[in-house]
Design brief:
With 117 residues, this protein is mainly beta. It is built from 1 helix and 9 strands. The strands form 2 sheets. Strands 1, 2, 4, 5, 8 and 9 form a 6-stranded mixed sheet that branches. The protein has a 3-stranded antiparallel sheet with strand order 3-7-6. It starts with a strand and ends in a 5-residue tail after the last strand.
Length: 117
């Protein structure tokens, strides 16, 4: 399966949450995420060695609702305030309990500058 293209826009200094629902090919039935882990990294370019933001089920920045196929991304207001405004890239990968890794989404990750601080 090819990764879906989904561009994310966030406001610097504001709490960021985004919920994604992963559906089977019928576009109705949720993928059962039991046993899955998820990870997402944001970088200036795909080949950049510097990770701007690191979200995962391991660090609590991604949570899964397995039976509903839901993936929730989260960054606190403090975390987004520390991010430099600009355009970055990201991808979101899920790993099954058997070790199969799928890239679910990829795209740009744009941080809009905060005016009020």
């Amino acid at each position: 399966m090819a990764a879906g293209q989904y561009d994310i826009y966030i406001e610097q200094g504001a709490t960021f949450t985004r919920e994604i629902e992963w559906l089977q090919s019928d576009n109705t039935t949720p993928v059962d995420l039991t046993g899955y882990t998820a990870r997402m990294q944001v970088r200036k370019t795909a080949k950049s060695p510097i990770v701007v933001a690191d979200l995962s089920t391991g660090n609590g920045r991604i949570s899964l609702t397995p039976a509903l196929g839901k993936i929730k991304l989260m960054l606190t207001a403090t975390e987004t305030a520390s991010l430099k405004d600009g355009e970055y890239v990201y991808d979101l990968e899920l790993q099954s309990g058997t070790g199969v890794v799928e890239r679910l989404l990829q795209g740009t990750f744009t941080i809009n500058a905060e005016v009020t601080r």
